[in-house]
């Protein structure tokens, strides 16, 4: 069978995770009484707090399309995602989590994650990471999309940016 058709290649074994064909961007930030609560609250603010995110490496399947908003997914579902997180307990500090998504011309895409204390730095660095990743692979880069969550810490804050992969 062909790549992405449900098999792992030579052995005829069925891939329990068929290739996702849609993705959407999500970002959120929040405060919490603990680092874990701040992270959980940022997940909720990003609209993914009731899903079991399964962190995956950063390849966008060829032909996957961007959704404007998240589809309805049953709470507790295992959901593949690439995400960046930054937390801090320093009042007044800015935390930023960024994701850069590169879409190739007639190829798969790549997602890179970065975090910093400045939106501008996070956007610049993650864009450079996407460009380098495509150059290293010898792939033509068609476009770059960056999403950033930014948060000014009051007591204990978290910023989270995510790309969620799904089937649609």
Give the topology.
Elements: E1 22-31, H1 35-45, E2 52-55, E3 59-60, E4 65-66, E5 78-88, E6 94-104, E7 109-116, H2 119-137, E8 141-152, E9 157-166
Parallel strand pairs: 1-4, 2-5
Antiparallel strand pairs: 1-9, 3-7, 5-9, 6-7, 6-8
Q: Determine and state the CATH class.
A: Alpha Beta
- Helix and strand composition category: alpha+beta
The CATH homologous superfamily is named: Pyruvoyl-Dependent Histidine Decarboxylase, subunit B
Q: Biggest sheet, open or closed, and with what strands and sense?
A: 5 strands, mixed
Q: How many DSSP E strands? A: 9
Question: pLDDT below 50 for ≥5 consecutive residues: which ranges?
Answer: 1-5
Helix content estimate: 10-25%
Global shape: globular
Strands across the major sheet, in which order?
2-5-9-1-4
Structurally, the number of domains stands at 1
DSSP strand content: 35-45%
Could you name the CATH topology? Pyruvoyl-Dependent Histidine Decarboxylase, Chain B
Instruction: Determine the number of helices (DSSP H or I, runs of at least 4 residues).
Output: 2
Average pLDDT level: 93
Radius of gyration: 17 Å
User: How would you spell out the order of helices and strands?
Assistant: EHEEEEEEHEE
Provide the CATH architecture: 3-Layer(bba) Sandwich
Distance between the termini: 21 Å
């Amino acid at each position: 069978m062909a790549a992405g058709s449900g098999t792992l290649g030579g052995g005829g074994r069925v891939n329990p995770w068929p290739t996702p064909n849609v993705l959407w961007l999500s970002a959120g930030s929040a405060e919490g009484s603990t680092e874990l609560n701040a992270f959980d609250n940022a997940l909720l603010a990003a609209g993914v707090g009731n899903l079991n995110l399964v962190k995956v490496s950063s390849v966008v399947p060829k032909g996957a399309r961007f959704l404007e908003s998240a589809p309805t997914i049953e709470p507790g579902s295992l959901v593949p995602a690439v995400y960046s997180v930054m937390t801090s307990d320093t009042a007044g500090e800015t935390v930023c989590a960024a994701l850069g998504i590169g879409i190739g011309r007639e190829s798969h895409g790549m997602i890179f994650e970065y975090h910093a204390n400045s939106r501008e730095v996070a956007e610049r660095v993650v864009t450079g990471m996407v460009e380098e990743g495509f150059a290293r692979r010898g792939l033509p880069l068609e476009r770059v999309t960056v999403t950033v969550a930014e948060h000014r810490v009051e007591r204990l804050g978290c910023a989270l940016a995510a790309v969620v992969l799904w089937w649609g």
